[in-house]
Each structure stands twice: as C-alpha cells, then as structure tokens.
Write a structure and sequence with these properties.
By secondary structure, the chain is mostly helical. The protein has 1 helix and no strands. The longest helix is centred in the middle third of the chain and has 44 residues, at 2-45.
C-alpha cells in the first residue's frame, strides 16, 4: 500500500512538472515570435 501511494504521488508530481514545462515552452515561443515581429518591422522601415 505504501508503494502504491508513493507511485501515485510521484505520478502527480511528474504530471504537474510536465504541464509547467509545457507552459514555459509556450511563453518562450511567444517571446520569440514577438522578437521576430519586431525585427521584421525594423527591416520594413529600412
């Protein structure tokens, strides 16, 4: 029973960690898109 609870707790923590990493990845992607948009805007002005 103790091992089952430990395995369940580990699974919950891993799932939460994956969601957090996924969210960070999305934030970084959005930041990159904004940077690229700004660079494109500068290119158009030249």
């Amino acid at each position: 029973m103790k091992r089952l609870l430990l395995a369940l707790a580990a699974g919950v923590l891993l799932a939460a960690g994956c969601n957090t990493v996924h969210g960070v990845g999305q934030d970084i992607e959005r930041g990159g898109e904004k940077t690229q948009d700004a660079a494109d805007a500068v290119k158009r002005r030249m």
